[in-house]
Amino acid sequence: MLGLKPDVKAAWLDARYQEVKRSALEEMRSRYKVVVVPLDQSDLSDLRTPGAAGTAQEPISQ
Predict the structure, then answer these.
(1) Distance CA 62, CA 56 (A)
(2) For the chain (length 62 residues), average pLDDT per consecutive 10?
(3) What are the DSSP calls for the chain, one per residue?
(4) Is the N end or the C end of the chain the one with fewer CB atoms within 10 Å?
């Protein structure tokens, strides 16, 4: 990249960086499959506001 104007070099580097970043994201996403289970309306009727960590009101079975 000798002899290029700084703004041309910066634009090329930015474009290359964006391409590498996009490619890496696509590769990472291709490894995962998101499965969303349909929710029944009755599943939403018993939601409670989550408390702070460590303040659970019910014991968690292990």
Answers:
(1) 14
(2) 81 96 94 80 64 59 62
(3) -TT--HHHHHHHHHHHHHHHHHHHHHHHHTT-----PPPPGGGGTT------TT--SSPPP-
(4) C
* Cβ atoms within 10 Å, residue 57: 6
How far is Cα 30 from Cα 22, in angstroms, rounded to an integer?
12
Separation CA 9–CA 15 (nearest Å) = 10
Confidence (pLDDT) at 47:
66
Nearest alpha carbon to residue 48 among 57, 59, 39: 57
Considering only CA atoms, which of 14, 11, 33 is closest in space to residue 22?
14
The residue count for the chain? 62
